[in-house]
Sequence to fold (491 residues):
Amino acid sequence: MSDILLSQPNTNIKHLNLDSSCPEVATYRVYVITWNVGSRFPDNISLRNLLGLDSTECQHMPDIYAIGLQEVNVQPQQQVLGLFKEDPWTAKLKTTLGDLGYVVFKTEQMQGLLLTMLIKRVHVNYLRDIEAEYTRTGFGGIWGNKGAVSIRFNLYGCDMTFVNAHLAAHDSHLEERIQDFKQIMVNHHYHVKRFRGIYDHDYVFWFGDLNFRLSGDDSSKEVQEAIASGAFEQLMERDQLSYVREVTQEAFHVLRESKPTFPPTFKFKEGTSEYDLKRRPAWTDRILYGIQPDNCNPNTQLHADQFAYKSHPGYSISDHKPVTGEFFIKLFPGYKTPIIHFSDLNVWRIGEENTVEYTKPLTFKECDHDWIGIYQFEYTSLRDYVAYEYVCQAASPPPSPDLSTDPFFAHSPRRLSQRHRNRDYLRRQTRENEEIVRLDFAEDIEMKSDEQYILIYFQNSGSHGVTSVCGISNAFRAETASSLPRLPNVD
Fold:
């Protein structure tokens, strides 16, 4: 499918600073999943087929995974547990994809709506302006059982947003679904300049249990018989989403969708692939997309091609079947932004104070809440730091991850304790057009001897948690002081 122009293109076009040594445009692969999991957990099921890992084309792995779930278990005990550890679905995705070189770089949850974003580890250093947003539409906007969560970011010079939505249910509530859409569009605002709204982005992917049904008065049995005869095209002529998008243009009309060629994905008897005729079958689970082809570079048009759109009937834990969409998009791998360069660090001395040195351009905007995290070399989530230090603050929080001091949890963490540091723990030296910074990490960081680690520099704007990855160090080994060679005393 070819791309479609979003209405009202972003007039604040950013002209990219491209490195002439890199190709101007390259193709990247995006894999989108939507699934209403009906409050079920991912115990005893494999996600490999859903993630495309059992395909014969598995060697051409996606660069980005976007997994949007609806009706995730939100029992009180599960919500409390979620404050301190990953939800079971994100943990399962991380386990399945982590060994293949993927990193969970952001999640956003609003009650039963969950969006998890993963990216190949080789791309992490190019993630900029990561931000999550949510909009409640349930009970007039006061309850989050319906609505949308989204994650936006910049990668290789292009800004994109992924929106996971769950709209009003039932055949007769078409107007409520339209109003849900409009409420999301009005209330969903980001805090990145030039990209305040959903449609301001270069690429938009909008998916979820959109709950659009079939118009008409035929019975569930009659719809089931039409499905059995393969009359998908005739049924799609009565699809509410196609109607409001193409005919009345009341919702989603600037987005595009490939026509589903798979059977309706709702409603099934749990544990089976048999329709539950208490409800008329319908294509409730959908994936739409759109682009701003001229938004980045006036000399090069962006492009999106959808090459797969299918359901996965083998999954039967809920009354919905999951749906996946696969896309090729164009990005600018030569896009340059000011970046942090770490000096090589070969060994980290466990139990001792260690100094990290890095160089930054004078044009780099350092923010009050910038921080450097220590990660295991083959990290699988940006939340899985071992320890961290703030770059601009004179006193540092405890080195162990803690909810109240998590730099991802709030833009201005409240510290449970203060460690008194040497006033010279942060030292700066300016030369020509750059600054050399030396930052001391405390001696009480818990690391494992003979394992490899890396450093990641995060720029945190302090505004609604907008975060950028601005530099990654080389791999270094941690060693206890007793295992390090000692120089002989010289009199």
About this structure: The domain at 341-397+418-480 is CATH 2.60.40.2840 (Immunoglobulin-like).
